[in-house]
Amino acid sequence: MTALLDRVAKAASTTAFGLSALAVASFLFAAAIVVGFLFWQTNKLFTDQVIATLTAESRILTSEMRVGGQNKLVETVTALSRPQGGLGLYYLADGTGSKIAGNLNRIPPELEVEGRGGVFSYQPTEDGGATHLAVAIPVDVGADLRLIVGRDVEDQRAFANSIRFAFLLGFGILSIIGLLGGLAVSRLIVNRMDQITSTSRQIMEGDLSRRIPTTGRGGELDGLANSLNEMLDRIESLMNGLREVSDNIAHDLKTPLNRLRNSAEAALRDPRGEEAYREGLERTIEKADELIKTFNALLLIARLEAGPLEESTETFDLGKFVADVSELYTPAAEEAGFALAVEVEQTVFVRGNRQLIGQAIANLIDNAIKYSRGGEPGSTITVNAYRVGGQPAISVGDHGPGISAADRERVLKRFVRLEQSRTKPGTGLGLSLVAAVARLHQGEVRLEDNHPGLKVVLLLSGRCLVAAPNGLDDAEPGLAAQ
Amino acid sequence: MTNLGSSVLPAAGLPRRLGDSRLNSERRDDEGRTHTMRVLVIEDDKETALFLQKSLKENGHTADLAHDGEAGLSLANDGVYDVLIVDRMLPRLDGLSLIKSLRSEGNRTPVLILSALGEVDDRVKGLRAGGDDYLTKPYAYSELLARVEALGRRTAPEEQQTRYSVGDLVLDRLSHRVTRGGEHILLQPREYRLLEYLMQHAGQVVTRTMLLEHVWDYHFDPQTNVIDVHVSRLRAKIDKNFEKPLLHTVRGSGYTIRDGPA
Predict the structure, then answer these.
(1) What CATH number does the domain containing A270 carry?
(2) Which of B125, B140, B225 has its CB closest to that of A311?
(3) What is the ipTM score, two decimals?
(4) B121 touches A at CB < 8 Å
(5) Among A44, A384, B19, B219, which is 20 to 30 Å from A90 by CA?
């Protein structure tokens, strides 16, 4: 019982209940105004009717008096006062106040004052008890007579009473049903809210896999639950990403840190002395530089994933830029025994982060040179810039060992390096950075088979594509910088 | 396409004095070396600041220290410095505000910004605030020294030089011709620009990153030493068939072009 009371009290204290109570109250208030007005109008109509009847009757009696004198009047009043005469009430008295004719026994106390009409109550003689309500007006029939004509309105009063009762009953039922409805609605909402609250508590306690249950009926509460669940999915994947990254940092930074420490220690122990120290320090600096590179790449990826870099967005000719960056690598590729074939579409103007796209191209070409060594000697690395389906694209293809279809998705993740490439130099962040640059430009990275080898396509969003700008500095960037 | 017969004549209208001084690169070298720079280091980490002071002194420069932005600003305004090294995050007054306030007072001393913030946007903001160069922590000291010396050279009156020469190597900026000992050397456009930048900073050490930034305008990590291959190709053209090498590799730093021992 107390539990039920508690639940009712809890439901009654909710916002939902408050709102439905407010709705019921305002509905009742509006209904009361309408009903009150109707009641007043009906009452007025009845009263007007009675007054009209009384006025007509008083006119008839006045003319009787004028035509037939007092006797005729007394005769008519007496005739009208007979019980079968109707609802009329009459009282005729002489100047001294003693009754001459009529069915009222005395002047009702409410109408003592002469010349005034109004409402009064009286007891019909036959009933002997129950008072009836009546309306009467005085009739001017000469100075030495006093005549009051009235009408019993008990029926109307009973009608009004029954209407009033019906209205009150209606109001009562409405209020009760409204409040019960409010309670039910708030119970419903409180239950759903409790689910959300308890889920979020469990999540706060560390169970990120919890989700808010939905009814599947698609109401706005389901909508809320769904978007909260989506948010939780995103948070969970971010958290997992973070955990993965910190695991990887632990692995990929600790290993080189350890190597750095080892080489410093080895140099210290070396009996050759000064010469060994120098070599050791040089090796230490080299290893520190590698660590810094990895660290910078990690920070850059993290920054790119946090949102756009507005300050350094610029418009440039993608084809020209790709050719330019390729030119930087051509000698290095040739030195390694590979040819770099560059083919770019003209006038693909792009609005984006030139330096980051450059970094992405550099990473791709650098990877291509590195992995071509595992393929046929003297093969050609192809670099292209073109438009595909309204999107600017850059592709770099090599004829190295390639990546099996199963592993392609995986290598875009941070630090993922396929086992066979673990021994090659590099941070393992190259492709992840390319993917982050693609995401920054609302694009994507696709890994394809180059028959044989790997072809990486960096697609930028179609929104990055711009019309050829007027007055774009045609000078080579290198010259402009000076 | 050999043009062995062409003589080395200064372009018309070239000041005689300039041509003379440039012809004697030995002298220029000496000037470069004895030129002592006054550097103000505004850096709140005292260990780093002392390390920079000591290292700069070893390289023949003098360095004053300030450990917060306000002290740094008043020193920069009072003293006469060739280069300011400003850390971006400083107590009292941050580096960028310091530079803005210096520039608004008409102080044009070259500024090298040091920052732990190394993203593309940060560099743009730093240069926009009035900085002349931007170096991300952690950096190699050799990189910092090369950049400070390059900035210090900038304070010398900007002469619109139309001709650079080191030893018998001459680069004419008007005709885009390069000759050595009167022999015409045919260069690719990028090789020409590489040589131009090196000769502009003759006698100074130029790092690979500086080359990447100024010759290619790339502010990203090329992953491998792609610059080395470009430099060795250039070297093959300007040094290979000549007795005395001019383009030297400075171990652990970068390159320098000079007439004399590296």
Answers:
(1) 1.10.287
(2) B125
(3) 0.75
(4) yes
(5) A44
